[in-house]
């Protein structure tokens, strides 16, 4: 069994997924969860060396994460965005505190968080947990924790770490650098719903 599985949720990333997977498979087992893509994301990922599981239709990022957590068999899981923003070399730094049994969930904290709505959700989350980037896509966690998460919210901002903390996880973060990626950034409408999910965790956990 591989020590680390990198779970990559992907939707219509045919132009990016191949180089990302080729970087990752040099060191890690890679599981791409294709979220009902209408392009050839699955075949590009498979050709680059990833194991690919396919959602029957586009169900969203959180559903893809849950599928990846169920399918992964490694003791450690790393989540990695399919747009190429993250650097594979940061993974080793993330997994060390878990391998040393100091933490159960490690976040890759970005220097800059682009969306104001995400920064606001981070401020709310810090009322409970002292982390700077609760919505990062680069995380390392134990599989036992991953499969225990409900992830029943609009997105992962804030609530991923709040739910993990409510389940007793030891949580920390390490700084990471991101790569510039040319991609459209629409309005994150789900952050409006996510505000109420974060409040729910703050009040009930």
Automatic annotation (TrEMBL):
Q: Which Gene3D superfamilies match?
A: Spore Coat Polysaccharide Biosynthesis Protein SpsA, Chain A
Q: Which N-terminal residues, if any, form the signal peptide?
A: none
Task: Note whether Transferase occurs among the keywords.
Answer: yes
Key word Transferase present: yes
Q: Which UniProt keywords apply?
A: Transferase
- InterPro entries from the UniProt entry: Glyco_trans_2-like, Glycosyltransferase_2, Nucleotide-diphossugar_trans
Question: Can you give the residue ranges of the Glycosyltransferase 2-like domain?
Answer: 5-120
Looking at the record's lineage, which domain of life comes first? Archaea
GO molecular function of the protein, one example? transferase activity
Q: What is this protein called?
A: Glycosyltransferase involved in cell wall biosynthesis
């Amino acid at each position: 069994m591989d020590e680390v599985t990198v779970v990559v949720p992907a939707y219509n990333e045919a132009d990016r997924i191949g180089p990302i997977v080729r970087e990752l498979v040099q060191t890690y087992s890679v599981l791409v969860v294709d979220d009902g893509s209408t392009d050839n994301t699955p075949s590009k990922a498979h050709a680059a060396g990833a194991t690919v599981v396919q959602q029957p239709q586009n169900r969203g990022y959180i559903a893809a994460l849950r599928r990846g957590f169920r399918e992964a068999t490694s003791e450690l899981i790393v989540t990695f965005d399919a747009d190429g923003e993250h650097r594979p070399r940061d993974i080793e730094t993330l997994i060390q505190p878990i391998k040393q049994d100091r933490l159960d969930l490690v976040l890759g904290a970005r220097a800059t968080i682009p969306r104001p709505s995400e920064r606001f959700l981070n401020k709310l989350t810090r009322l409970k947990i002292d982390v700077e980037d609760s919505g990062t896509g680069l995380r390392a966690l134990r599989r036992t924790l991953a499969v225990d998460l409900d992830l029943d919210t609009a997105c992962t901002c804030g609530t991923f770490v709040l739910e993990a903390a409510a389940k007793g996880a030891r949580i920390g973060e390490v700084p990471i650098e991101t790569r510039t990626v040319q991609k459209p950034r629409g309005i994150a409408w789900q952050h409006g719903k996510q505000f109420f999910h974060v409040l729910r965790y703050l009040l009930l956990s």
